[in-house]
Amino acid sequence: MDQRAEGGPTRSRLGRVATSMPRCRWAVHTLLATYIARERAANISPIRRTRGARAGTTGRCRGYATYVPGEPNTIVEPALVVQPRNRLASAARGLRTVVDLLRALTEADLRFRYGRGPLRFLRWLLEPFALVGVYLILVTFVLHQPGPAPGLSLAAAIVPFQLVMLTVTNAMVALDIRRPILLNMSFRRDLIPVSSALTESVSFSASFLLVVVMMAVYRIAPTLALLWLPVVLFVTLYVAVSAAYAASLLGIWLRELKPFLLSFVRMLFFLGPGLVPLSQTSSEVRGLLELNPFTGLFESYRDIFLTGRAPAAWQLVYPLAIASVLLVVFVPLFRAEQRQFAKVL
Amino acid sequence: MTWGLRNVTFSASPGEGIALIGPSGSGKTTTLRVLAGVYTPDEGRVLVRGRVGSLLSTEAGLLSLLTGRENALLLGVLGGLSRKESKRALESVKERSGLGDAFEYPVSAYSQGMRARLGFAVAEEAEPSILLLDEVHEALDHEFRSIVQERAQTLVNAGGVVVATGHDHPLLELLCSRAIYLHQGSIRADGAFSEVQSVYFDHVPAGTHT
């Protein structure tokens, strides 16, 4: 739909000049700036500029008013406005838009997750204990597990696993939950899986209290290895985001198999050094366990909180590589499939 | 293969109100969703110049568990406003929707008309130059319907475009001077509202049209 106003010959001439002579770009820009300044000075607003198409916007622009020299009261809409391209400003604007979108999606998701009642903070704090606390109590106080601080060792595996597991669970229904929006408007749908991971990161942050409690129970003091935590957290979030893209699509493609998909992810905890550290597994299966991307993550957290060592390079590089493969496969698939979302939801 | 839309070609000029009419399943909603970017066409292309505001379902794009305010903030950002702009616009959305205290209630407690009010107020806040309305205005009460009508007319007068669907032809005629009659995903007639409407009425069984 072309919503250009009837501009007559002046507009056409201006449009041709702007498109055919690149050197005139600055001139056109100057004309725009002049007009806007005049408009402001005269305190008139004969044309409403649409948001998102204001001075400084690069690329195709709409809704601009153009001041035509010699015709002070003539306002026409140009066929095309070519402006000097400021890549940095454009990138910053794009980033801000993405951040705004992610924040809005995540905040809405958190409302779904925790509600809006006065007890939502308590729920956030206690949920990790409710989910896995019983296992920790069992391992820490009831069973006699070999090795140092078995409760902390288990917590170090459960904490990152819960982020990925909950992200997958969230991502599988993320599109269904947002069905009314998806059917009503167009927006960056490829940010929805990232939003699922961010939502669960909030829950993840509370689960660190488990680790703190376990460290206190076993009287293990933090070491300098804690400096590796931001790197390990980044890798964990990266894995969660990659899993979210796969889960979102599989949740649409294989609706009926959702419980099995979740079971598969849960199985990876037990087919890795989740319950016991890698060092306590038999040497025959150790090589196989190392193929599980969670193995590196679990061991990294144990290194940081339990043994006070820096994580080995493979522990971080391998999950990163697997997650990258997932992203390379599923992000383009997600982008291609999103055109069908409104039809299948 | 059955196509939702086939060989549908039309353009809208600034200041035009277009009604899509036709029986249920004729492709009216699909056309609006393609225009809104909700569906990507398998073939052909859509060229949209301007910001699109849309109300394409009775749910009006609202999430039931969120309050009116939370929905307005979310939809504002998704609709292209920055977070700051969307936040700043909240009071205006509240006022325009006329929801009063209900603005703070979860949308699950809203009637269909209240949803449509909020959806319209949010869509309007993003200052669209193209407004797409899919039968939503038919859920509105008389008071808000006249407000919608007035605002749609203002948009058209300012050089915007309104594309509306519905079965309430007298209401559509107030909003749109032009109509497109869709049948089984194809255009049967395109022109002045009254002419296209009579073509449509010639095709539907007597006594079934309003």
Features:
heterodimer, A: 345 residues, mainly alpha, two-stranded antiparallel ribbon, 12 helices, 2 strands, 67% helix, 1% strand, globular, disordered N terminus, B: 210 residues, alpha/beta, Rossmann fold, 2 domains, six-stranded mixed beta sheet, 8 helices, 6 strands, 39% helix
How many strands appear in the DSSP assignment of chain A? 2
Distance between the termini of chain A: 28 Å
Share of helix of chain B, binned: 25-40%
Oligomer: heterodimer
Question: Largest sheet of chain A at a glance?
Answer: 2 strands, antiparallel
Record the strand order, biggest sheet of chain B: 2-3-4-1-5-6
Work out the helix count of chain A.
12
Question: Major β-sheet of chain B, in short?
Answer: 6 strands, mixed
Q: Please identify the top-level CATH class of the largest domain in chain B.
A: Alpha Beta
The proportion of residues in beta strands of chain B is: 15-25%
Query: How many distinct folded domains of chain B?
Result: 2
Distance from N terminus to C terminus of chain B (CA atoms, Å) equals: 33 Å
Percentage of residues in DSSP E strands of chain A: under 5%
Count of individual domains of chain A: 2
Q: Record the strand order, biggest sheet of chain A.
A: 1-2
Overall description:
The complex is a heterodimer of chains A (about 350) and B (about 210). Chain A is mostly helical. Helix content of chain A is about 65%, strand content about 0%. Chain A has two domains: about 10-85, no CATH class; about 90-345, no CATH class. Chain A has helices at about 10-20, 25-40, 85-115, 120-140, 150-175, 180, 190-215, 230-255, 260-270, 285-290, 295-305, 315-345; strands at about 65, 75. Chain A starts with 7 loop residues before the first helix and ends with a helix. Chain B has helices at about 30-35, 70-80, 85-90, 90-95, 110-125, 140-155, 170-175, 195-205; strands spanning about 15-20, 50-55, 130-135, 160-165, 180-185, 185-190. Chain B is globular. Classes of the chains: A mainly alpha (about 350), B alpha/beta (about 210).
